[in-house]
Design goal:
Blueprint lengths: L5 H26 L2 H22 L4 H14 L6 H17 L19
Helix pairs in contact: 1-4, 2-3, 2-4, 3-4
Length: 115
Amino acid sequence: MTIDLTPILQAIITLLCALITYKLIPWIKSKTTEKQQENLANAARIAVFAAEQIFGAGKGDQKLDYARQALLAAGFDYDSIVLRAAIENAVRSMNLYDPPEQVETPQEHPPETAE
């Protein structure tokens, strides 16, 4: 008999993301300036989107490592917990992102003439 642990793991990951978002992010904000927070958040967002583009669905460990290395390379020499929090926050933002629907542009047609 096999047991599918996927729902349990998803629940644990969701709980960890919530804890990071609601506990660690406010602590980080209290220790950094507004501009530093903005720069880190923007860099983390770019790193997360790039990791998703490069590695695709799944491969979470590889994407996390890529995003962490990208932030370090960009000069964000923060504690690994702070980098992880910024990355998780960017992932959450990416997952909540709802891109606008494609809007069809009307084709140009010559005006109809009355006969």
